[in-house]
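Q: Could you fold this chain for me?
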Amino acid sequence: MTIRYEDRHRNYSAVRSYLSVIRALILRDIKARFMGSAWGYLISIGWPLSHIVALLIFHSAFGRMQPYGDSAAVWYSTGIVPFMAFSYTLRFVVLGLLQNAPLLCFPAVKVTDIIFARAIVEVLSIAIVFTILVIFFELTGSRFIPQRPLLAFYALFLSF
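A: Sure. Below is the predicted structure, expressed as structure tokens.
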């Protein structure tokens, strides 16, 4: 069975159109949600990191010992990052549906497009937070990389 050139061209054109809709929604979400600047995006990256810092400050202020292991920072980070990956993605995808509802008047935009675009933005944001944490813990000498990184990646992926 051979696929004719016209059918193949029509399929490429549909995929290209779909990807351009997703790209436009991602750019619109970033510009609208992060105040159209790099500072707004840095605030969104700093927000999860501030949660970890606040917990560490409270932890040390009350003189509590680490619940497990050598580092309270690693303990809280390994619990907070998957939770934030789930809760932030869920919250902002739902908000994205509400904020972008007027775009559904355009025939090219579907509900799933809005969901995928906002989920991509959230996955990239939490990946940046995770990368910052890994770099920080590597520089401070704390062991942050799990013994089975692929299994940890699967768990983080499923939380999305």
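A (continued): The longest helix spans residues 111-140.
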